Amino acid sequence: MKLTDQNVHYYLTERGLLQEGNIMQGHYMAQQSHATRNNILRVHVNTGPSMFIKQCGTDTTSISVLKREASAYQLLHGHKSFADFSTGIPSLLDYDDQRNVLVTTLQPNTTSLHDHYLKTKTFPVELGARQAKLLAGYHKPLTGKKETMAFPHQLPWVFQLNDFNAYHLFPNNTENGKFIALIQQNGVLSNELQQLKLEWKKTHFIHGDIKWVNFLIGNGKEGPQLTLIDWELADIGDPCWDVAGLLQSYIAAWIFGFDNQQPTSYQLHAGIQSFELEHMQASIDSFLHTYAYMQGLVNGSRATWLIKVMRYTAARILQTAIEGVVFDPRIQANNMRCMQLAFNIFKDPEAALTHLLGIKP
């Protein structure tokens, strides 16, 4: 049964998540989203926790990803290592593995960090620090079989580009195949991805898909409150990948603001000039400094870590560029800019830290 805004109250009542009185007294409202690959509903309840409902398809991949997300919430709220962190994520209210439905608490009066930055056009250092505290809070080493067996221990797919035919990764998308082939044919890009594959550490619990849209921001008792959502790619892996994901969000906001119709121009449109990297550098510095401090990275270890994070960021930029050709099946100028930027970072990550991010390793 596919859940809809018309029938979801029957389902929630059956699962013990909603009382009939809430419906009869008008304390209930359901909203359905249609522009996603999953079936998404938001249920607002005045006298109890509001709910975010995700129902996936019946294919094996979708089911396994939903199960992984449920396992992530169970681990984060059930393992003592994450006790201080759990306020930064939604609570798991129900996981129905028969009908492939996940129910978590809905964060009211929030917006994505991406939309927040678009609206305010400012990048407070406080928000950079809060994101660092969130990441450091769940980046815990996990080695026990019981706590890690629910996760596949996978490499990021971009590290595996050399293992596949360029045109087989995204069938029926010739332009994407061409773009991947360009990466595979570039010695620097190909060799660096292979090296990062060898350096990957399966040691820590990671989110796996860190980006601005997966942070929700709302008002808390002590200022802005951040919540990290969408744990579908949670895994046991290298925490540098999550750090790189956030750096990629800053860089992508800048590079995708260039005009695709003017390949030689590096000027942002007038309405988004606040996304020049120089305006975001203080926030980036706050994020990296806070995270390094919380993880005990100092002096030489911090410098080595920064270089590694920058190389991971180059790979994350490539992944974003490839995904962009999936959603818009043309190779645009900004996709090529991403490829060139990744190349430059790989060639000299220390210079990239200084000139792109304003960070001295």
Describe the protein's architecture and organization.
This protein has 13 helices and 10 strands. By secondary structure, the protein is an alpha+beta fold. The chain has 2 domains: 8-105, Phosphorylase Kinase, domain 1; 111-357, Aminoglycoside phosphotransferase (APH), C-terminal lobe (Aminoglycoside 3'-phosphotransferase, Chain: A, domain 2, Alpha-Beta Complex). A hairpin with a 5-residue loop joins strand 1 and strand 2. Helix content is 47%, strand content 13%. The strands form 3 sheets. A 5-stranded antiparallel beta sheet has the order 1-2-3-5-4, covered by helices on one side. It has a 3-stranded antiparallel beta sheet with strand order 6-8-9. The radius of gyration is 21 Å and the shape is globular.
The appropriate CATH architecture of the largest domain is: Alpha-Beta Complex
| Oligomeric state of shown chains | single chain
Q: How many individual β-strands?
A: 10
**What is the helix fraction of residues, given as a range?**
40-55%
* Structural class by sheet pairing and helices: alpha+beta
Spell the H/E element sequence: HHEEEHEEEHHHHHEEEEHHHHH
Domain module tally? 2
Number of helical segments with 4 or more residues: 13
Low-confidence stretches: none
Strand content is: 5-15%
Q: Give Rg in angstroms.
A: 21 Å
Strand order of the largest sheet: 1-2-3-5-4
